[in-house]
Amino acid sequence: MSSLVVFDSSIFIDYLWQGRHQQRLLSLAGIVRTSAVVLAELWRGATKPQERRFLTKLEENHPVLVPTRRNWIESGQILADLRTRHGFLPGKLRDLHFDVLIALTARSHGARLVTSDRDDFELIRKYRPFLLEVW
Fold it and tell me: Measuring CA to CA, how many Å separate 39 from each of 9, 20, 23, 83, 85?
């Protein structure tokens, strides 16, 4: 199991709004890195001062991984394959784009991606292997 861990937005959303995963987060083995894409997703939805403080601390306390040029290009290629093979409409492809970038960025760093969004990430993993843990 990889010592680097990247959390998908779904874990933080579950934690912040539903109080889920607290014990798992406290007992986590690994070095946490934050995805710039996850931060962007979470900032987009942050409306309360406590949420904004959480995101600021998350960025300050954990190095931020940024998608590379190759990750961006590869994400477009994967989305084109998804459109061809599954007939996904533009809205679904837009919804998947950030998830593909998060997965590719974690993969580039050999990090384990932790999510509660099993279906989308297992679909993405059919196109590019990466370490995945579903909570």
Answer: 8, 19, 22, 26, 30
